[in-house]
UniProtKB/TrEMBL annotation:
Record organism: Cohnella phaseoli
GO CC terms of this entry: membrane
Keywords: Membrane, Transmembrane, Transmembrane helix
Database matches in SUPFAM superfamilies: Acid phosphatase/Vanadium-dependent haloperoxidase
Inositolphosphotransferase Aur1/Ipt1 domain sequence ranges: 87-252
Name this polypeptide is given: PAP2 superfamily protein
Highest taxon of source: Bacteria
Pfam families per UniProt: PAP2_3
Segments passing through the bilayer: 6-26, 47-63, 101-125, 132-154, 183-204, 216-234, 240-259
Length: 285
């Protein structure tokens, strides 16, 4: 059952998912939320610079693989960090043999994970909650800045690659994953799990939004993504634990920075942005 034929399919699916999630989370049509987001980019230099920083760190992650090849780290810490686990993912896969479940988890891993991140920026901006916009932005920056050194110097191979008993189920729905997606995710960039850390980061931030339905969805997304990294045969339990720690640290730092920005003498920028971007009626919680 092939769901994704190329990265174009993933991109189109993500764009559609972002629109649906914005409508769901903000309670407004995606175009109105998009207009609020672009107004914020032009009205606040601080807002724009933080957004540019987030985009820059995403590009840094893309080129991390080139830096990794240049450093040419030859050792492998897979057995040292995860050897105690065995091949329990194989037992999980054998106990739940379902094409539907494979497709469901792959959609969360490939599409809804990144769509939730994109939608979050628009939802918090439209709601006038600049504090959460900045908290999420700096938390994402923290996730990547803390994870990249581990990817460079603590190489841990993906579960299916390290143990032949574990199947890489992603290929069942995305046969060309290795050719099209692998350039964005190194085979030994497992520890910590960024899918875990970022999905939990988004859920923790959403919990402070006051938008109950969005908070519930963000936690469902995080739980399914964490299940997916195991069921699809990608990550180890050790990776997930490290991802939870990374999320906790990044969210704590992100909220602290956002709070300082609010109390900064130039926080008038935040106040003006909030007033201009306030939705015509309260967002339902």
């Amino acid at each position: 059952m092939t769901l994704f034929h190329s990265m174009s399919t993933v991109t189109y699916s993500t764009a559609l998912a972002v629109a649906v999630l914005i409508w769901f989370g903000a309670g407004r049509q995606p175009l109105a939320v998009g207009m609020a987001f672009f107004r914020a980019l032009f009205q606040s230099r601080q807002y724009l610079l933080v957004f540019i920083a987030v985009i820059a760190i995403l590009f840094l992650n893309k080129y991390e693989l080139h830096l990794e090849n240049w450093l040419n780290v030859s050792y492998d810490l897979t057995a040292a960090l995860t050897g105690w686990e065995g091949a329990w993912q194989a037992k999980l896969q054998a106990s739940l043999p379902s094409d539907t479940l494979i497709g469901f988890t792959a959609i969360f891993y490939l599409v809804l994970f990144q769509a939730t991140m994109m939608a979050s920026f628009g939802i918090y901006t439209y709601a006038g909650n600049m504090k959460l916009y900045y908290a999420l932005s700096f938390a994402i920056l923290g996730n990547y800045l803390l994870a990249v050194p581990f990817y460079l110097y603590v190489p841990v191979n993906e579960a299916w690659y390290a143990d032949s008993q574990i199947r890489f189920l992603m290929l069942n729905v995305f046969p060309t994953f290795e050719q099209h997606y692998r350039a964005l995710s190194g085979i030994n960039n497992c520890f910590p799990s960024l899918h875990t850390s970022l999905s939990v980061t988004m859920a923790l931030i959403a919990s402070r939004s006051g938008i109950r339905r969005w908070s519930i969805f963000a936690w469902i997304n995080a739980i399914v993504v964490i299940f997916a990294i195991f069921y699809l045969g990608i990550h180890w339990f050790t990776d997930m634990v490290a991802g939870l720690v990374l999320a906790s640290v990044s969210v704590y730092v992100g909220l602290k920075i956002a709070a300082r920005m609010e109390s900064h003498p130039h926080s008038g920028i935040l106040s003006r942005s909030r007033n201009k971007l306030e939705p015509p009626s309260p967002v339902e919680s």
